[in-house]
Every structure is written in structure tokens, then in C-alpha cells.
């Protein structure tokens, strides 16, 4: 555990430096006198864009080397630090004294440490000034962020392998950057990959450790961005603590919601960029609210542009979500959008943001690099041909069944109506009069049909949105809170109009409408609309919006409290409210549950690989195992796919040209990519989410109970049930049993022939590793 804690700390330090400290120092003149909110938004967007642009530009120029990146980033940082006269003078004086021989290196080091301490002291004093009068607020926020990071990072300390299959793909793309090859699998937003690459280059942190821990640490940016938005749009600045506390403690009751929250544990592009959508809408609102042109309004427009650009550079889905989120708020201030002084500048900011983020991708595409396949997958989501996450085909099948029933009923109704019309026309005899009546009836029916269609769509959104995600009982409460929020929005609009004689830019409307829009997006395929974003990918943002909407009555009460003499008690009310939410969710049984990883190997295999990396010379060994070890050891060792070894060992000759060969054999083959839920202390979460997967085809496990089978001599020689790529072969448990049994049998046969050459390197009840030391000049023939 100590190793993983040290890796977590290293990733945390690297993240803080690259995301916050580096831009804070380099752009300190720009940030001078700015609020903490401005600094957060600036650092988290500008640093991402700079890293992305610099790395991809070097790649386009074919000079992307670790040394070049190292010199650029540390060089710019050092120059920025030494721009301050006092630091530059003191540093140069120390260096001159050192090289003159009158100062030893130990004394120099101590003086440099003292300088760093002084800088730290000054920084703490500055932070104290910035938080003056707000200590309680920021303390509550800090507690919530720390709790969130612990919750989301807990899984990485329980299972030391990647928790989601996509992470292996992204690791491969980052390794492509290490080889100087940008867009190694085609043009795709690579801001996250560039960020991890720079952490690896600048701090020497293994890519594996970066991907294992960075997502959970970066969840803090998501929480702070939510904090910034709702502190801006709510009438009371204390309501946001209730929203964050509820998000971090209240449980969910649908697999899509569990999936959406679990994704915050993984270092994958969409979740890495989710924070930008909240910054986009926040700075759009700030820009629209300000009447007169000012430096602050220009800053708001700049940060809106940077947030939009960062979202595009990280993941296109985030930009799409940001569009709908911004639109949900902006529609209630549409006149402000189309004001002459605003529209042109907003349009220019959007165009500039798109150019900044996409220029490297466009240049790479123009130079001949094809688009990455995932972009085609995104289009498949929209047209309904995706089978992994998209739900359009399911919705279509349900719609077809409903249409068949409706057509049958319409046929019966139409026959009856035709008979009635014939009787009426024969009795009346006036064709012209009947045609006039028919037009009026048709208009009336058309209006009724439209109204019926709207009502039917509302019912579908309720059924396939609210009820599916939250169950019938919670869905009813959500609708009640939606109505309450709408009523409060109307009341606030009326009061503001009476007081100020104008229609206000009412945020309650925006929050409520945004929650409905995202629910419609989730239920889109069941409404006959294109599924622009896979439904499960929307759940995280939708949950935040629903909680914000439910907090509107609380916000109104806190706002009214602030208008009284008791307003000074609001900070303490927020503390008590957060504590009450935590205690209440525990007491009423709605406290959140532990999340899951897609488990693909035992922890002992991960620990063993780390041990081999530390103890053996670089690239002097080969690990023969399933795919996962390749990503962990790729920077220091070689890897042979277990499936490849299975086939190649049956050839006439087969050699692996390294001195050491490590054979990983699962004595109890694991069910590949099983949904493994964690267990742990009850103060952090509860073990409760597996029950929602009982009717799925997924293999489930929790805590120490990992689902597996056993190898057997009887399986040796049996044909594989599934052939093709390795992941498909390993996913079939019978296949995995056969492969592991075959490799174990091969090791036993080799050991019987060369008892002194093959040794058991590690063994436990689930897993065993054998090692062969061979002469590189006289390699063993590994064929049977």
C-alpha cells in the first residue's frame, strides 16, 4: 500500500504543479488582483490548452522529444520566477558565491530551501488575505473536495489495475506521444493525453500511475466548477454546499447512474473535461449580466472562450453538453444574446475558441492523418447503429411494437368513422357543405392530435427518463420539485418586474429548464429523436442539475434569511446543512454505495510487475501474460501476449530474445472484465449497488469475493471456443481456462526437461509466476 500512496502523492504534486502552479507563476501579471474563481478557471483552461497546443505543435514539426518538452516547460517557469528582481538577484548572488568556491553545495542547498520556505510563507499569507471573512465557507468546500477525492480514488487502492477498458487505449496513445507520434491511431482530441505525457516527462511519473490516479484527483476540478457555477447563479452563495453535499452522499438507483458516477474514477477524456461545461455556462451568464463594457466583462468573455476551447480539445461530447447547458440558460436572456454589442463578440469568441482547439487536429488531418475510429462510433450513437451504449435500436423496437398496436386500433376507428360519414352524406346530400364541415373537423382533430402528441412525449420522458433513472417514487418527487422551482421562478420574475420595471434574467428558470433538457436528451431515442449523446454519458451532469433544481426552495429560504438580521448565521447554517445531509443519508438508508472497476487481473500480478520493473535491467526481460502487463511494463520491459505464446509455441521454432522470461499463470482464471464493486468503511460508502445488476448479464463480485474458475490438466489440448483478438479470447472464461491450463502445462514440461533453468518466482492461491534465465547468445527454443 505504501508504494501506491507514494504514487498517488507524486501524481497529486505533478497535477498541482502543471494545472495550477505553472500557469499561476507564468501569468502572474494577468492574475494579479483576480479572484480565486478567476484564477481557477484561468489555470484549468489555459494550462490545458497550452499543453495541448505545445505538444501537438512539436509533433507536427517532428521534434516532439522528452528533452525538448522538459526544457520548454521548466525553462519558461524558471524565467518567469527569475523575472522578479529580488529572487533573481538573490539567486544569482548564491550561484556566484558557489562557483567562487566560498560556498559549499550543502549551504547552497539549505539557502535554496530557506528561499522556498519564504515563498511558501508569503503564499500562505496571500491565501489568508484572499479568504479573509470566508474561512468557514472555504473550509466546508475543502472538506467536500477531500471527501470526494477519497471516495473516487478508493477503488485504485483496492484494485491496482485499470478500471475501464478504454484506459488501455488511451495509454497506447500517450505512449505514441512518448515515441514522438501524435494522433497515433488517428485524429482525436488529445488534450488529456498531452497533459499526462507532460506529467510523465516533467516528473518521471509512470504513465500507468498517472492514469491510475489522475482522474480521481481531477474530480476535484469537476466539484469546484460545479461550486463556481451555482455560487454564481443561486441567490444565496451558501446553497451550493447543499448541492455538493447531496451529490457526494445521496445514492442512485439505476445502472446508468452508477455507470456515470463510476466514470469519474477513470482517467478518460470525457470525464477529464466535464468541468469545462460548467465554466462555459458560468462565464456566458456573467458576460450577459454585465451591462456596460468593462475589463471584467472582457475577462468573462475570454474565460468563456477558453472554457469552450478546452472542452473541444479534450472531448467533443463535453462541447455538445456545454452547448445544451448554455442554451438552457441563455434562452431566458435571449435578448441579451442578440444585442448588437454582445452578439458579434460572442460569435467571435466561439469562432476563436474553435480555431484554438481544433487547429492542431485540422493541420494533422490536412497533412494526411485519418480520423480516429471513435469519431465514427459517435456518429453511430446518433444514427442508432451502436450496440454498446446507444439505446436507439431498443427504442425503435419498442416504438415498432407500439405502432403496430396503434395501427390496428386506427384501422378499427377509421372503419367506424367512414361508415358514419357515409350515412351523414347520404342523409344531407350537400357535398359542398360537407367539405366545409370536414375542414373544420380536420383542423380540430389536428390541434387535438398535436396536444395529444405533446402529452404523449411528456409521458415518454417521464417513463424513459425520470422513472427509469430514479424509480417511480423518486421520479414523482422530482416532478414536484420541478413544479415548485417553476413557481418560485414565476414569483421571482413578478417581484423583480414590479421592483425594477423589467423582465429579469431569472436563473431559477435556467436551472429548471436545463434539468428538463438533459432528461429529454436522455430519453431522446424513445421520442423518435436522434441520440446525440449516449444516455448513460449524460447522467452525471443531469444528476447535478436535478439536485440544483431541488435546492431552489432552500436557496430561496437562505436568500430571505440573508435579508434579515440573522443573515450572519448563514455560514453556520451551511455547515449544519452539510452535516445534516451526511447524517440524514446514513440514517434514512440513502447513503451512496461503493463503485466498481472492470476487473481484469489480480492485484498480486500488478504488485509482481512493479517488483520486476524495479529489480531487473531495462528491456532485459519479457513478461508472458495477458494484455494488461504490457501497459504497466512498456516503459521498462518487453511483453509477449499469452495468446500469441499459445500459438507460437506450437510452431517448429520459437525464440524470445531477452535474458529473463516471466510466465504469468492464473491458477484460478479470472472472469475477465467482471464488474467488481468495492467494500470498505461505512463512513465512506455502503455496499449496495450490486442489486441493480441482478438481472443483467454482467459477472458481479464485491470485496474479496472475485469470480474465477480453475485450470485443469483435462483442458490441455482442447480447442479454443473463441478465436480472434486477445480481448475476445480472454473474455470467454472457458477460453481463459484452456489458455492458462496450456501455459501451465508448458511450464511444467519445460521444468521437467530443465529443472535448474525454470524456477517458481512467485506463487499464491490464485496466481503463479515462473522465471527462466537464458543465455542471450544461446536462446532456448520455446516450441513444443
UniProtKB/TrEMBL annotation:
UniProt keyword terms in alphabetical order: Membrane, Transmembrane, Transmembrane helix
Membrane-spanning segments: 6-26, 38-57, 63-82, 138-157, 205-229, 241-260, 301-334, 346-366, 477-501, 507-527, 572-597
Protein name, per record: Uncharacterized protein
Native organism taxonomy: Bacteria, Bacillati, Bacillota, Clostridia, Lachnospirales
Amino acid at each position: 500500500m505504501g508504494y501506491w500512496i507514494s504514487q498517488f502523492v507524486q501524481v497529486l504534486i505533478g497535477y498541482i504543479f502543471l494545472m495550477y502552479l505553472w500557469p499561476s507563476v507564468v501569468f502572474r501579471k494577468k492574475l494579479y488582483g483576480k479572484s480565486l474563481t478567476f484564477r481557477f478557471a484561468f489555470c484549468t483552461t489555459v494550462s490545458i490548452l497550452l499543453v495541448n497546443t505545445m505538444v501537438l505543435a512539436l509533433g507536427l514539426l517532428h521534434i516532439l522529444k522528452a528533452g525538448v518538452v522538459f526544457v520548454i516547460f521548466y525553462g519558461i517557469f524558471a524565467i518567469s520566477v527569475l523575472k522578479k528582481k529580488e529572487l533573481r538577484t538573490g539567486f544569482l548572488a548564491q550561484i556566484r558565491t558557489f562557483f567562487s568556491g566560498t560556498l559549499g553545495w550543502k549551504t547552497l542547498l539549505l539557502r535554496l530551501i530557506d528561499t522556498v520556505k519564504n515563498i511558501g510563507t508569503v503564499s500562505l499569507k496571500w491565501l489568508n488575505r484572499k479568504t479573509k471573512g470566508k474561512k468557514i465557507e472555504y473550509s466546508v468546500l475543502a472538506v467536500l473536495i477531500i471527501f470526494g477525492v477519497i471516495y473516487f480514488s478508493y477503488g485504485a487502492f483496492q484494485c491496482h489495475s485499470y478500471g475501464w477498458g478504454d484506459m488501455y487505449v488511451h495509454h497506447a496513445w500517450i505512449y505514441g506521444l512518448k515515441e514522438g507520434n501524435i494522433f497515433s491511431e488517428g485524429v482525436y482530441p488529445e488534450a488529456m493525453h498531452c497533459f499526462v505525457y507532460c506529467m510523465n516527462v516533467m516528473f518521471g511519473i509512470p504513465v500507468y500511475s498517472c492514469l491510475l490516479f489522475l482522474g480521481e484527483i481531477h474530480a476535484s476540478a469537476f466539484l469546484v466548477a460545479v461550486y463556481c457555477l451555482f455560487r454564481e447563479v443561486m441567490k444565496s452563495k451558501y446553497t451550493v454546499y447543499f448541492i455538493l453535499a447531496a451529490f457526494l452522499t445521496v445514492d442512485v438507483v439505476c445502472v446508468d447512474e452508477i455507470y456515470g458516477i463510476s466514470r469519474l474514477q477513470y482517467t478518460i477524456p470525457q470525464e477529464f473535461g466535464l468541468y469545462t461545461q460548467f465554466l462555459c455556462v458560468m462565464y456566458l451568464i456573467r458576460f450577459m449580466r454585465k451591462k456596460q463594457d468593462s475589463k471584467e466583462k472582457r475577462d468573462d468573455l475570454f474565460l468563456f472562450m477558453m472554457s469552450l476551447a478546452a472542452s473541444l480539445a479534450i472531448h467533443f461530447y463535453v462541447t455538445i453538453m456545454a452547448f445544451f447547458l448554455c442554451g438552457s440558460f441563455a434562452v431566458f436572456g435571449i435578448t441579451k444574446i442578440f444585442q448588437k454589442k454582445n452578439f458579434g463578440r460572442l460569435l467571435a469568441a466561439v469562432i476563436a475558441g474553435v480555431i484554438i482547439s481544433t487547429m492542431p487536429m485540422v493541420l494533422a488531418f490536412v497533412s494526411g492523418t485519418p480520423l480516429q475510429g471513435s469519431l465514427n462510433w459517435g456518429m453511430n450513437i446518433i444514427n442508432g447503429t451502436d450496440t454498446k451504449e446507444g439505446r436507439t435500436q431498443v427504442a425503435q423496437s419498442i416504438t415498432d411494437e407500439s405502432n403496430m398496436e396503434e395501427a390496428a386500433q386506427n384501422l378499427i376507428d377509421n372503419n367506424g368513422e367512414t361508415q358514419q360519414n357515409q350515412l351523414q352524406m347520404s342523409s344531407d346530400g350537400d357535398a359542398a357543405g360537407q367539405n366545409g364541415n370536414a375542414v373544420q373537423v380536420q383542423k380540430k382533430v389536428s390541434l387535438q392530435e398535436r396536444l395529444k402528441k405533446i402529452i404523449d412525449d411528456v409521458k415518454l420522458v417521464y417513463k424513459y427518463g425520470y422513472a427509469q433513472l430514479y424509480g417511480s417514487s423518486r421520479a414523482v418527487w422530482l416532478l414536484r420539485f420541478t413544479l415548485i422551482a417553476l413557481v418560485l421562478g414565476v414569483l421571482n420574475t413578478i417581484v423583480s418586474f414590479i421592483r425594477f420595471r423589467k423582465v429579469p434574467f431569472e436563473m431559477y428558470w435556467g436551472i429548471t429548464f436545463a434539468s428538463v433538457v438533459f432528461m429529454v436528451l436522455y430519453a431522446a431515442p424513445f421520442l423518435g429523436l436522434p441520440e446525440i449523446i449516449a444516455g448513460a454519458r449524460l447522467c452525471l451532469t443531469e444528476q447535478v442539475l436535478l439536485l440544483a433544481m431541488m435546492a431552489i426552495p432552500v436557496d430561496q429560504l437562505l436568500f430571505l434569511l440573508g435579508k434579515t438580521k440573522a443573515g450572519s448565521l448563514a455560514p453556520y447554517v451551511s455547515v449544519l446543512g452539510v452535516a445534516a445531509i451526511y447524517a440524514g443519508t446514513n440514517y434514512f438508508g440513502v447513503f451512496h454505495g461503493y463503485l466498481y472497476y472492470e476487473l481484469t487481473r489480480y492485484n498480486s500480478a500488478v504488485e509482481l510487475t512493479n517488483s520486476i520493473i524495479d529489480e531487473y535491467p531495462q528491456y532485459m526481460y519479457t513478461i508472458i501474460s495477458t494484455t494488461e502487463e504490457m501497459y504497466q511494463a512498456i516503459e521498462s520491459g518487453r511483453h509477449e501476449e499469452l495468446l500469441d505464446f499459445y500459438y507460437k509455441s506450437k510452431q517448429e521454432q520459437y525464440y524470445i530474445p531477452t535474458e529473463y522470461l516471466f510466465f504469468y499463470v492464473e491458477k484460478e482464471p479470472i472472469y475477465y472484465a467482471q464488474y467488481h464493486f468495492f467494500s470498505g468503511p461505512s463512513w465512506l460508502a455502503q455496499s449496495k449497488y450490486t442489486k441493480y445488476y441482478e438481472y443483467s448479464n454482467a459477472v458481479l463480485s464485491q470485496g474479496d469475493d472475485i469470480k474465477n474458475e480453475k485450470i485443469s490438466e483435462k483442458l490441455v489440448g482442447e480447442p479454443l471456443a473463441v478465436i480472434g483478438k486477445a480481448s475476445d479470447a480472454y473474455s470467454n472464461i472457458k477460453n481463459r481456462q484452456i489458455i492458462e491450463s496450456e501455459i501451465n502445462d508448458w511450464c511444467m514440461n519445460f521444468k521437467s526437461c530443465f529443472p535448474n533453468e525454470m524456477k517458481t518466482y512467485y506463487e499464491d492461491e490464485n496466481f503463479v509466476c515462473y522465471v527462466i534465465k537464458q543465455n542471450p547468445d544461446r536462446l532456448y527454443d520455446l516450441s513444443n
